[in-house]
Amino acid sequence: MQVPFCHCCGRPLPALSKKTRGKPIYCHTCTASRPYFTFSRSATAYTEFMRALIHRFKYQADLDLGRALGRVMAQQVDRYPILKKYQKIIPIPLHPEAANRRTFNQALILADQVADVTKGRVYPDVLLRLPGSALQHTLGRRQRKQGLAGEFFLARPELVGGQKILLIDDILTTGNTLSQAARVLLRGGATEVAAFTLAIGITVQDGY
User: Fold this and answer.
1) Model confidence pLDDT, tens digit, residues 149-195
2) Rounded to 5 degrees, what angle do the CA atoms 74, 76, 79 make?
3) Residue by residue, what is the 3-state secondary structure of 112-154?
4) What is d(CA 184, CA 157) in angstroms, rounded to the nearest whole number?
5) CA atoms of 96 and 115, how far apart (whole Å)
6) Nearest CA to 171 among 198, 143, 132, 207?
7) Taking each helix axis from N to C terminus, what angle separates 63-75 and 48-59, rounded to the nearest 10 degrees?
8) Among 30, 24, 80, 36, which Cα is nearest to 180's?
9) How does pLDDT run across 49-68, given as a tens digit for each residue?
10) Among 3.30.365.10, 3.40.50.300, 3.40.50.2020, 3.40.50.2300, what is the CATH number of 28-206?
11) What string of H, E and C letters represents the secondary structure of the chain?
12) Do 152 and 127 form a contact (C-beta atoms < 8 A)?
């Protein structure tokens, strides 16, 4: 990932001006609405090439490719050593409708590879998605933001209280999915929630 990037979500940004150099900077999305997670970082930008790889992993069930993409994330942990302080790792759960069609959760496969490096423990059953919530890839930006309230359910609150938690997902686009998951975890007693994704989208609002 290139520098500079958003201090909050990690989205890559154009070159800094002299006025902003040396100061925390924020992308258009995080400036408009700060997410519930403390920060998020990503291994790579969501390019057309990365989109093709993720699509093959998720929709053609190429699990070997998925584990390789997880290792790409793991290799970036040394770039973001702060990630190692989060010893409880929670993959973003599948939507129930997607779980009925797919035999695996791509975020869990990625999380297992990251945990090998951070020495954290993966908890796949702490956070669940409620039936009836909309599939994210079918929604626009505004619908996505409005439709996420109440989507997640904390199934095992006893594992969350007083903990620093790292969320794992494949892609950060608007950041709303990770933000609402973080909100549920914080309400359940987590002291801090960060996020780490394989890829992150870049937007025209940030100068691209």
Assistant:
1) 458 999 999 999 999 999 999 999 999 999 999 999 999 999 999 99
2) 140
3) HHHHHHHCCEECCCCEEECCCCCCHHHCCHHHHHHHCCCCEEE
4) 10
5) 25
6) 198
7) 130
8) 36
9) 999 999 999 999 999 999 99
10) 3.40.50.2020
11) CCCCECCCCCCECCCCCCCCCCCCCCCHHHHHCCCCCCCEEEEEECCHHHHHHHHHHHHCCCHHHHHHHHHHHHHCHHHCHHHHHCCEEEECCCCHHHHHHCCCCHHHHHHHHHHHHHCCEECCCCEEECCCCCCHHHCCHHHHHHHCCCCEEECCHHHCCCCEEEEEEEEECCCHHHHHHHHHHHHCCCCEEEEEEEEECCCHHHCC
12) yes
pTM, full prediction: 0.87
Domain spans in the chain, listed from the N-terminal domain onward: 28-206
User: Which of 86, 85, 53 minimizes the C-alpha distance to 70?
Assistant: 53
Residue carrying the six token digits 């699990």: 63
- Token look-up 């400036």 returns 31
Contact 185, 165 (CB under 8 A): yes
**Hunting for tokens 């209280």 — which residue is that?**
161
Pairing of strands 88-91, 164-172: parallel
Which tokens sit at 14? 């154009």
Nearest-10 crossing angle of helices 106-118, 48-59: 110
